[in-house]
């Protein structure tokens, strides 16, 4: 519902993708959900409903690829996200501003809770991606490597691994290994690896325009005893981040954001857990 309240919604083409049931027991709930969506959007939307379950990663990858076969850009959202009224304005302005800048791979609507940026109004670049309300272009998505070729470099090169893990703030490297070994089903870690290899950047707002409601237990990801990435978006309808003309990283801001991610990821407790998992997983996956 929050998306329908966003400025620019009425002018936006809408394409809905819904995966199929994992079991027959899920069929009635899925059909009910699809009926709600159709009741809200009616003929405004184009619908793609799977009869069988394709899984999260395959569904996202195929859906984004299908849309970018028709358009040159896409804004990707999921059903457990809540948006500030200016979300679409910010996303569309940013997509237009960097359409031909091959250093920029993604626009993110979500932002981590960074105390130093809570009163800021300028969007900023980071060398990471985010999957909670994001956008990209066809020219960037063409660089997506679903096989994550070269992933072994992260496992074997300590300096590269530290950079991939944003200075040790978050253990993306173990997540990538688990994806390759079939332990998790993540498109996002492969997208991050693709952007990382290319040296690409993502534009983030200074404070979040997206709230992930999946932390209430209804979502499939994001929960953890020491980890908390929940941030509430601004309800100020007038807040549209300023889009920077220059595409560059500000080391001070990058370090502040990485420190905030480290804190949200559980601080030293989260890092200890990640280190143990890396050692354990590395030993048993040889």
Detailed description of the structure:
With 286 residues, the protein is of the alpha/beta class. It is built from ten helices and nine strands. It has helices at 27-41, 56-68, 87-97, 138-141, 152-156, 158-164, 172-180, 188-198, 251-264, 267-284, and strands spanning 14-18, 45-49, 73-76, 81-83, 104-108, 124-126, 134-137, 201-204, 210-212. The strands form three sheets. It has a five-stranded mixed beta sheet, with helices on both faces. Strands 1-2 form a two-stranded parallel ribbon. Helix 1 (27-41) links the parallel strand 1 (14-18) and strand 2 (45-49). The longest helix has 18 residues, at 267-284. The radius of gyration is 19 Å and the shape is globular.
Features:
single chain; 286 residues; alpha/beta; five-stranded mixed β-sheet; 10 helices; 9 strands; globular
Q: Brief description of this entry?
A:
It contains ten helices and nine strands.
How is the secondary structure organized here?
Blueprint lengths: L13 E5 L8 H15 L3 E5 L6 H13 L4 E4 L4 E3 L3 H11 L6 E5 L15 E3 L7 E4 H4 L10 H5 L1 H7 L7 H9 L7 H11 L2 E4 L5 E3 L38 H14 L2 H18 L2
Parallel strand pairs: 1-2, 5-8
Antiparallel strand pairs: 3-7, 4-9, 5-7, 6-8
């Amino acid at each position: 519902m929050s998306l329908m309240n966003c400025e620019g919604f009425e002018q936006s083409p809408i394409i809905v993708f819904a995966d199929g049931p994992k079991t027959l027991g899920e069929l009635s709930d899925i059909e009910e959900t699809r009926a709600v969506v159709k009741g809200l959007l009616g003929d405004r939307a184009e619908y793609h409903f799977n009869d069988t379950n394709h899984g999260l990663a395959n569904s996202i990858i195929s859906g984004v690829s299908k849309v970018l076969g028709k358009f040159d850009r896409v804004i990707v959202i999921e059903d457990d996200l809540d948006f500030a009224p200016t979300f679409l304005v910010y996303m569309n302005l940013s997509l237009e501003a960097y359409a031909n800048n091959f250093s920029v791979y993604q626009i993110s609507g979500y932002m981590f809770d960074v105390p130093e940026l809570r009163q800021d109004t300028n969007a900023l670049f980071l060398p990471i991606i985010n999957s909670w309300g994001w956008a990209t272009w066809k020219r960037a998505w063409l660089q997506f490597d679903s096989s994550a070729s070269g992933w072994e470099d992260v496992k074997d090169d300590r300096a590269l691994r530290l950079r991939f893990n944003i200075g040790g703030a978050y253990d993306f490297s173990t997540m990538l290994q688990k994806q390759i070994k079939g332990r998790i089903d993540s498109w996002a870690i492969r997208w991050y690896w693709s952007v990382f290899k290319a040296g690409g950047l993502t534009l983030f707002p200074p404070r979040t325009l997206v709230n992930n409601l999946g932390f209430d237990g209804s979502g499939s990801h994001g929960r953890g005893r020491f980890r908390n990435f929940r941030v509430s978006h601004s309800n100020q309808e007038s807040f549209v981040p300023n889009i920077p003309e220059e595409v560059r990283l500000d080391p001070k801001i990058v370090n502040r954001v990485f420190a905030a991610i480290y804190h949200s990821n559980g601080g030293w407790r989260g890092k200890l857990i990640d280190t143990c998992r890396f050692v354990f997983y590395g030993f048993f996956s040889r």
